[in-house]
Structure formats: C-alpha cells, structure tokens
Amino acid sequence: MWQVLGQARAIRFLENSIARGEPAHAYLLTGPPHVGKMTLARNFAQVLNCSSPQAPCGQCPSCTRIASSKYSDVQVIIRLKDEKTGRFKREISIDQMRDVQKAAQFPPYEGKFKVFIIDGAEWLSSEAANCFLKTLEEPPARVIFLLLTAKESGVLPTVVSRCQRLELHPMPSNQVEETLITQGVDKSQAQLLAHLSQGCLGWALQAKIEPQLLQQRQEKTDLFRQLAKSGYEVRFGVAAELAVQFEREPEQVNTVLETWGMWWRDLLLIKERCHKWVVNVDQMAELEQSEANVFSVTQIKGAIKNIQLTIRYLRQNANPRLALEVLMLSIPLPLPA
Ligand SMILES: [Zn+2]
Questions:
Q1: Which of 42, 100, 235, 294 lies 20 to 30 angstroms, CA to CA, from 93?
Q2: Nearest in space to 136 (alpha carbons), one of 116, 108, 119
Q3: How far is the CA of 139 from the centre of ligand 1 (A)?
Q4: From ligand 1's centre to the CA of 5, what distance in Å?
Q5: Ligand 1 centre from 112 Cα, in Å?
Q6: How many angstroms is it from 209 CA to the middle of ligand 1?
Q7: Residue 149 pairs with which residues in a beta bridge?
Q8: 36: CA distance to ligand 1 center in Å?
Q9: What confidence tens digit (pLDDT) does each residue in 90-125 have?
Q10: From ligand 1's centre to the CA of 143, what distance in Å?
C-alpha cells in the first residue's frame, strides 16, 4: 500500500506509467517542502522492486529494506556536509554526480530497477547538472532517476525537459487534522498543526515529534512583532544579523521571511473577514484585537509584496545585507492611535 497520503493523482500517474510498460527514465517531483516528495519517491522505488503482485506491499524484503535505506539498488543523493562546520554544503557536486553516472552503468544488483533519488535537484551545481544531463541523454536500461525539488525554477531547464514532471499539492487542512487525530494528537493541537502546516503533512508530523519547531516559529513571529514597533536602529541591527546568518544558512533566513509574510497575510485575512484561512490560529486573539487595527490594508499589501521581493532578490544572489536593509526600511510603522 502506498504510504504517501493525499497524493492520489500523483500515485495514479506513477501507476499508469508502470502499467503502460516501461516507466520513464526520469521523473521530476515538485512541491513545497514536507509535502511528501521523498515518501512518494521511496514508495515508487518499492513499487518498482516489490516482489508482491500488490506492490508496494511494504512487507517483502525489498519493500522493508528500501524503507530502512538498506537496499543497495536505491540510492539517495543529497548535499554533503562540510566536515569542519557540520553544515550542508551549498551544492550537490560534480563528483557526486560522476559517482552516480558510474554506478548507473552497472545493472541492478539485487532488484529489478536501480533508483537514484536526487533530493534537492535545485542544489545541483551547474557542472553537476551538465554531467547528469549526459546520463539523461543516454539513459542506461533499468535505471530510474527521481529528482525532488521544492524550487523547480532552480533546476536546469534542459534537465527538467528530460523528466516526466509530477506536481505534488498540499492536502486540505481538515485532512491533515484528521490524519493527526488518527495518530493520537488531541483535537486542538491537531487543528493548530494542520493550519500551520498549510497542507504539508510531513511538517505537521515533524512538529508533532519536535515541539521546538513550534517554539522557533513563535520566536520568529515575536521578533517580527518587535520589529514592527521599533525604529530603524533596531531594524538595521536585525538586518545585519540576518545577513550574516544568510551566508551560513540561507534556508533558515528564507523561513524567517516566509513566517513574517504569513503573519502579514493573516492580518490581511482578518481585516477582510476571511478568518477560516488564517494560518496562525493560535495567535488569532492578538492578531484580531490589536495588530489588525494598527495597519491599513494598503500597508499590509505593501509589506507582503516587499517580503516576496526580498525572498526573490536573495535567491537571485542580491547582496543580502542591502536586500534586508531595504526590507527593514519598507516595514510600515503602525498607524497613529
Ligand atoms: Zn513489497
């Protein structure tokens, strides 16, 4: 049985591609972080190698060993960690892809198909992507590449064009809530996690076992609330800190900006009386009673746009300090009481 939840369309697509005979050589699975791309990829690798007629059975040696990452014919390629700092490197290197290229030349060792899952295809360096392109142009038999990405625009278009593209969508919030309840989460917590996850079940499940995720989110929102009340000296100090952090952990800074963007979005929804779409449901009282009254709709829309622009500029390698300072200047000051 497929384990990935809420992705019936994607499952049908993959099942059909097997039923037609030869599956494609490469698939690109796109969708937001934690939407289920890796679960789907592992499930598909199980289907390709399962010994039961009801694949993926989840019980046979192939299925169980793929699930526990012990199957020699299924390899996951991610960014390596820097030995000194312990942090992820910025790219998947050409050396990693050369190793893939070599390994792909040999037939499956124990299974029916060799499967390479490239987790974070947007991280392929341009040399790595070009090296991979050569493999895709002459794909070895019984080898399947599954490229996963939350940022399709970062994947080389010539690589994308050689893959079957499959988009994964977030689940409706009530389905995430129901799934969490079946896993023993109480109703109010399930409701909160379902809203915060924005339909990405993987995030909700992670937050269930790692409560610090909720704590970190709270800290980001608190920081932003503080900023909105502060003068430029404080704001520029925060911009400088974030710019330094961006050099080490660009994704973390991106998450901070997305959290802020979500806070403004909630304010707008409250002002427009669309409460059911609010994400930060645990902070509804504060949002409703105070903050929605101190900013105008025009200010809120401007703030959302500026945060989105900053995220885009940072992706396009703008100077982080400058981009963040410009954002700080653009955060509106509250309307006079
Ligand atoms: Zn099986």
A1: 42
A2: 116
A3: 26
A4: 18
A5: 12
A6: 28
A7: 30
A8: 20
A9: 899 999 999 999 999 999 999 999 999 999 999 999
A10: 19
Query: Ligand 1: distance of its center to the CA of 82 in Å?
Result: 36
Q: Which CATH architecture has domain 8-167?
A: 3-Layer(aba) Sandwich (3.40)
**Cβ–Cβ under 8 Å, residues 28 and 166:** yes
Contact predicate 242/324, CB 8 Å: yes
Residue 2 Cα to ligand 1 midpoint, Å, equals: 11
Please state the separation of Cα 211 from the chain's center in Å: 19
- For the chain, domain boundaries: 8-167, 172-210, 211-330
Whole-number Å distance, alpha carbon 113 to ligand 1 midpoint, is 13
Question: What is the distance in A from the centroid of ligand 1 to the CA of 31?
Answer: 26
> Rounded CA gap, 115 and 140, in Å?
11
Find where tokens 């994964």 sit. 168
Query: What pLDDT tens digit does each residue of the chain (337 aa) get?
Result: 888 888 899 999 999 988 887 799 999 999 999 999 999 999 999 999 999 988 899 999 999 999 999 999 999 999 998 888 777 888 999 999 999 999 999 999 999 999 999 999 999 999 999 999 999 998 899 999 999 999 999 899 999 999 999 999 999 989 999 999 999 999 999 999 999 998 999 999 999 888 888 888 888 888 888 888 888 889 999 999 999 999 888 888 998 999 899 989 999 999 888 888 888 888 888 888 767 778 889 999 999 999 999 999 998 888 999 999 999 999 887 666 5
Q: How far is the CA of 43 from the centre of ligand 1 (A)?
A: 10
Residue 159, pLDDT score: 95
Question: Distance between CA 109 and CA 106 in Å, rounded?
Answer: 8
Instruction: Report phi then psi at 9, rounded to 5.
Output: -65, -45
Measured distance CA(302)–CA(30) in Å, rounded: 29
Beta carbons of 96 and 80 less than 8 angstroms apart: yes
CATH number of 211-330: 1.20.272
Contact 323, 250 (CB under 8 A): no
